[in-house]
Amino acid sequence: MRDYLSWRQADCHINNLYNTAFWALVQKGDVGTTEAEEILKGTVASQKNEILFSRFGINYNDEPEQFKKGSVLFRDYGAVSIGSTISNAAEQQGEEREFSKKRKEKEKKRRSKAEIKLQSMDIIRDHFWEAHPWLLTDE
Predict the structure, then answer these.
(1) Separation between Cα atoms, residue 120 and residue 118, nearest integer Å
(2) What is the chain's pLDDT, residue by residue, as a tens digit (139 residues)?
(3) Is 9:123 a contact under the CB 8 Å cutoff?
(4) Contact 11, 23 (CB under 8 A)
(5) 47-65 core/surface letters (b: 16 or more CB in 10 A; e: else)
(6) Residues 11, 16, 17, CA angle at the centre, nearest 5°?
(7) Which of 12, 21, 87, 99 could pair covalently with 103 via S-S, beta carbons 3.0-4.6 A apart?
(8) Closest Cα partner for 22 from 71, 10, 14?
(9) How many CB atoms are closer than 10 A to CB 133?
(10) From CA 130, how far away is CA 127, in angstroms rounded?
């Protein structure tokens, strides 16, 4: 799942950079859509950035993150997982203990009320996944 979502975010960035350059050419550069396509055909990111900056004074890095990275919608459960946890004493001995059935249900209920967050952030690098490890579990 992580690879897929990372790929989608990279694709979002690629598409947004193209569309930002395309529409700048059409709306501010007085070229038609076909000509804009021809200008951008075969260009790489650095060339699109150069077109934006040199022709229109647009620094793509200053564009809002939501356009460059897209929007990430997720439940913010916190770092406690359902099913098992490690107590301080057990942690020192490297042992894991199970929650009681009642405790599991209580934790499940708490997590079902988790806050839903909408953010524009980098999900390609490790930081997001390290801060939200439960997103990659079955819990």
Answers:
(1) 7
(2) 899 999 999 999 999 999 999 999 999 999 999 999 999 999 999 999 999 999 999 999 999 999 999 999 988 876 444 443 333 334 444 544 566 888 878 777 777 777 888 999 999 999 999 988 888 886 5
(3) yes
(4) no
(5) ebbebbeeeeebebeeeee
(6) 100
(7) 99
(8) 14
(9) 11
(10) 5
Torsion of CA 52, 6, 71, 134, to 10 degrees: -160
Q: Is 96 helix (H, G, I), strand (E, B) or coil?
A: coil
* Spatial CA neighbour of 49 closest among 12, 17, 5: 17
Structure tokens at 118: 């909408």
Q: What are phi and psi of 138, to 5 degrees?
A: -85, 0
Q: Which of 9, 130, 3, 134 has the alpha carbon at shortest distance from 71?
A: 9
The residue behind tokens 């894991």 is: 96
